[in-house]
Amino acid sequence: MAITGSLSEFSLPEIFQFLDQGQKTGILTIRDPQNTQTGKPFLRHIWLQNGRVVAAGDRLDNRGLVRLIEQRGWLNPSQKDDLERLLEENVLLGLNLKSLGILQPDQLKLLFSVQVLRQVCALFQVESGQFRFDANVSLPKAEMTGLSLPATETTLMGLRSLKDWRILQSKLPEPNSTLFNIVPAGRSQLRLDVNETQLWSLADGSNNLRGIAQRLNLPLAKVQQIAFRLIVVGLVEEVPDIDMGINDIDDTDLLANDPNSKANNIPDRPPISNSFLQSLVGFLQHKT
C-alpha cells in the first residue's frame, strides 16, 4: 500500500499528523528534485513504527547509523567484529551495542538527535516536492537506535526550529480567529513549551488571537505560529471570525417577506448576510 502526493497540497505537519493518528508503520520518502533552499536535489527517508519516528536517512544502504558511530570514534578495532555480527543478525543496532557496553545511554540519545531529529527538522524547509508513504515495509533495524518519538512530537520540535515561516504562511490561523480546545488543557501526552501551554489554556473560544497576543505580551505573528503548532498536533481547533450580520437584521422585514407567517412561528434565526458569505468564501480560499 502506497500513499503519494505533493507537499503543495499537504504540508509535512498534516502528513505527520495522519501517520501518528493512524499509528502507521512504514517509510515516508520526501523528494524534491530542485530544492529552492540549496539548489540541489533533496531526498529523505523517515521510518515509522505505529506512528512513531524510529529512524531517518538520505539513503537505503543500512549503513547510516554505523557511519555516525564511526565518525565519532565510538568503535575501536576490536569491537568491529561485534558490530558486523549484529548487522548480520538484523537486530536493533543501537540497543544491542548498548547491551554490549559499546555505547552509553547518552550516546544513544545523541545519535537519535543527530540521525532523526536534525534530519526531520530540515524537512520543514522544503517548499515543494513529492511525498510517498509505503506501509508495512520491513524496518531497517541497522538504522535504529531503539529510541523513538511520536510523529506529532517530531512535528512540534521541527516547527519550533523553523526560522522561515513563508512556506506555511497561507496555513496560519487568522488574527481574528478564536481557538477551541479539542483536548482539555493538561490532558495531552505531548511535551509543550511554556508558550504552547499558555496558549492552550486560553483556547476557550472567548478570545481571538489578537487578544491572546496582547494578553501574553507576544508578537501576533508568533502567536499565530504557536496556534498553528497546536492545531496540527490536534490539540485545538480554529474557528474563524465570521460576521453573521445579526445586528443588521430587522425582525419586521422577516414578517413582511412572508405575509402568511405568524410571529410566534418565526424562528429567531436571521437570514445569512452577504458579508457572512463573503467571509466564508474568503476563509475557504485561504485554507485551500
Description:
Helix content is 40%, strand content 16%. The chain contains eleven helices and nine strands. It has helices spanning 12-21, 64-71, 80-89, 93-99, 105-123, 151-160, 194-201, 209-216, 220-232, 251-257, 274-287; strands spanning 2-6, 26-32, 42-49, 52-57, 130-135, 149-150, 178-181, 204-208, 236-239. The radius of gyration is 25 Å and the shape is elongated.
The tally of domains stands at 3
* Uncertain residue ranges: 244-256, 261-277
Strand order of the largest sheet: 1-5-2-3-4-6
Give the distance, in angstroms, between the N- and C-terminal Cα atoms: 27 Å
Judged by helices, strands and strand pairing, the structural class is alpha+beta
Q: What is the general shape?
A: elongated
Total strand segments: 9
pLDDT averaged residue by residue: 83
Computed over alpha carbons, the radius of gyration is 25 Å
List the helices and strands and how they pair.
Elements: E1 2-6, H1 12-21, E2 26-32, E3 42-49, E4 52-57, H2 64-71, H3 80-89, H4 93-99, H5 105-123, E5 130-135, E6 149-150, H6 151-160, E7 178-181, H7 194-201, E8 204-208, H8 209-216, H9 220-232, E9 236-239, H10 251-257, H11 274-287
Antiparallel strand pairs: 1-5, 2-3, 2-5, 3-4, 4-6, 7-8, 7-9
Helix pairs in contact: 1-6, 5-6, 6-9, 7-9, 8-9
Protein name: PatA-like N-terminal domain-containing protein
Pfam families: DUF4388
Organism: Pseudanabaena biceps PCC 7429
Key structural traits:
288 residues, alpha+beta, Arc Repressor Mutant, subunit A, 3 domains, six-stranded antiparallel beta sheet, three-stranded antiparallel beta sheet, 40% helix, elongated, PatA-like N-terminal domain-containing protein, PatA-like_N
